[in-house]
Batch of 4 targets.
Target 1
Amino acid sequence: MSTPASVLVYDGRKDAFRTVVDLLTRDMGDLVAAPWESARIQRFLEAQFGDRPFVFLLVEENSVHAGETAVRRALDARGLDPTIARTFERLYPKIADPFGRVVHGEAPADIHGTFELTPAAREHIDPIRRRQ
């Protein structure tokens, strides 16, 4: 059995972010991008967190990475130099709030780290994984 595709959850409401995510995920058959505002992702968030937080996520196998952890893991997956990936990881907590307020119109939720993918959330993310 093959490893399920990873899912990158991002703010797809702006063309610039869709373009960046398209570039990040190009030629990566094992990484699917899904906009935060989609109905399926909203149901996934509710099942995973009991809420619908505005957060940057990377779902890999049985883990949900949030915030700076998601940034580092996404950059690592793209093959970016580890030093650069760690720099972005360290910067994320400092710039996410002001950047989010200015660019997204809202600050990201204060959710960071790695969480176990819940069975209820898996039901919503697995169909996205299969769209690779």
Target 2
Amino acid sequence: MKPYEVVLADDHVIFRQGIKDIIQDLEGFQVVGEAGDGLELLELLKDVHPDLVILDISMPNLRGLEAAEEIKKHYPQMKVLLLTMHKKKSFVQLGLQAGADGFLLKDDADSELIKALETIKHGQVYLSPLLTGIIRDLTVAEPEVEKLTKRERQILKLMAEGKTPQEIAEFLYISIPTVRTHRARILKKLGLRTQAHLIKYAVDRGLTSVD
């Protein structure tokens, strides 16, 4: 029987190796590729088509959430398990919007990885135990970030990371006036007044890797 093929994407090599060791010891599972960031992952998937991609939410170049969206757009049958160190509603909400098939807290990886793999393999959504309450809460109240479009969330993250309008324009292949227009719309939607308020908003809600 063909093994259930998995690709790993995490910029922490030691952690990635630990996950790989666990999977390689499981009967019926095989790691067929690894990537250190989101862009490298998308390039890899042009040649390798696994059943499941396990990827960290916070990675260089292209975040895990954006990578997950691209995966589901181009390979809708491919499963995605998001790894995270955060228990924030905003991460889970955005992950659901991206089409993730599971959320695994890194702190639970040693004890829950096998269960996560088996759950997703059998067509179900996996959640680390500490995240189940968050999912229940999301059915009651969605975070404010839901008001933002995908492009607006990208620009908000880049601003919070200290990127200038010119750098954002070059990174996203759009014009500087377009960046400023998006910024004005973000401020209006979130009821904020300045870019400083936007940055604090993004950091407080874990919408960027900035600590």
Target 3
Amino acid sequence: MLTRRLLIAAAAAPLLAGCGFALRQAPDFAFRSIYVELPSGNAASGHELQRQLEITGKLQVITDAADRNKAEVALQVLQEARQRVVVGRDAAGNVTEFQLRFRLRFRVRTPAGKEVLPEVEIMRQIDQSYSDTAALSKDAEAQMLFTDMQSDVVQQVLRRLAAIKLEPRNDS
């Protein structure tokens, strides 16, 4: 009985190895340098995006506006918005459910102004139940959900940046 199980496991190993499974790796970009322009104010997703781009180790991330022309592309974060909208109330009019929304608008251009990726808006939303008796914990939960949505949106931006194909330069 034991040898039969071992034979089945040994036969399954090549099938699993050949299925194409691979661990997720840092994306490959068609450019080597990027300028990240954040909106005025606090753009937490922009800062997280900067960190994620730097972590890849494949890009030079330029944040100084004086050096923006040294970058092959410029990522411009146009707007970041967090919203908490009431979507449910009980018979007494008390809030029972919120919808949390996180939006990020951005575009990518070359230093010459050519749009490589036109303005894009990525939005994530999630419903959250609410109770007045647990208001503090629900506020903490909402902040955690916003952080998770922000991280997901940043990963989506990275995937879109990796999908960009630049035209070959004519350096003659």
Target 4
Amino acid sequence: MTTNDDIMKDIAVKDSDCVNNKDVLTALATDETFGNAILGGQNPYQMLSDGAEKIDLSNLSEYDQACVEEYQNAMKNFFDGNATYEEALAQFFTAVGEKHPELAQ
């Protein structure tokens, strides 16, 4: 699915999504007939295409996925009113420490 340009373009157009396909982003960026209704007819894909070229993944680590997941879990408790901000942060640090004890302090 993600290697099919037509499917990716369909996702981008129908869902106003930024897809991970450079060819599709470039094609949409240069399509003068394309406009996003949510943005009043503007075409955001030139900006998205330019930004995609600047993505630097050199600072990713083996811990990123666990940290993101546990932060989202903890902050959901905060946003749902089930924890204070401090409690949610403590939950985050505890959960990451359990998954990766070498990070616990």
